[in-house]
Amino acid sequence: SSNLLAYAAAGGAAESSSIGASALGLRIADYLRSSRWPDEAIVFALATLPVLELRGAIPVGYWMRLNPLLVYCLSVAGNMIPVPLVLLYMEQLTTFLTARSSSARKVLDSIYKHTRRKAGPIQEFKWLGLMLFVAVPFPGTGAWTGAMASVVLGMPFWSSFWANFFGVAIAGILVNLLVSVGFNTALLVGAVLFAASTFMWSFLRFLGRS
């Protein structure tokens, strides 16, 4: 929830982040096109990458003049590919690397500390917090960070998976709106989605207390 408020307060921060990811995505797309990759495969592959994710893949799909619905589906599917891998194997990989390298231990400790700092809304609101954290296309959020945060916080696999999925689906809508109709409309839709999610969470809390 605090990420959405920051998104509104920062104005163009999310838009600037999308532009930066798009520029990097276009450079990678140019290289892959020269290697004769199909445009659809390029969009899918870009969405799997950290930093780029949806913010980089969807604008590239528009630049390639692909069907917007196809771009959305490819980007959401690609962005979800790393999620189960992170949820299932991050702890094992961390244990393996830290046991063999002190340098890896320092790097991973830094990543864990950074992830915990970002995970405040997730700790407070659990499933809804993770979903909103992934949904808002703000710098430092997204499926990669959301999956890592859920591992750090010890959330169950399926709860984490579905929270990431719905967050990625909403992020795809917002980035599509950023690209096609501009920041203000995307922010308005994000605010409506936030209000609906907050109402749903309040209702579930009420049921839980009852």
TrEMBL record:
<feature type="transmembrane region" description="Helical">
    <location>
        <begin position="127"/>
        <end position="155"/>
    </location>
</feature>
<feature type="transmembrane region" description="Helical">
    <location>
        <begin position="41"/>
        <end position="63"/>
    </location>
</feature>
<dbReference type="InterPro" id="IPR009577">
    <property type="entry name" value="Sm_multidrug_ex"/>
</dbReference>
<feature type="transmembrane region" description="Helical">
    <location>
        <begin position="69"/>
        <end position="90"/>
    </location>
</feature>
<keyword id="KW-0812">Transmembrane</keyword>
<feature type="transmembrane region" description="Helical">
    <location>
        <begin position="186"/>
        <end position="204"/>
    </location>
</feature>
<protein>
    <recommendedName>
        <fullName>Small multi-drug export protein</fullName>
    </recommendedName>
</protein>
<dbReference type="Pfam" id="PF06695">
    <property type="entry name" value="Sm_multidrug_ex"/>
</dbReference>
<keyword id="KW-0472">Membrane</keyword>
<keyword id="KW-1133">Transmembrane helix</keyword>
<feature type="transmembrane region" description="Helical">
    <location>
        <begin position="161"/>
        <end position="179"/>
    </location>
</feature>
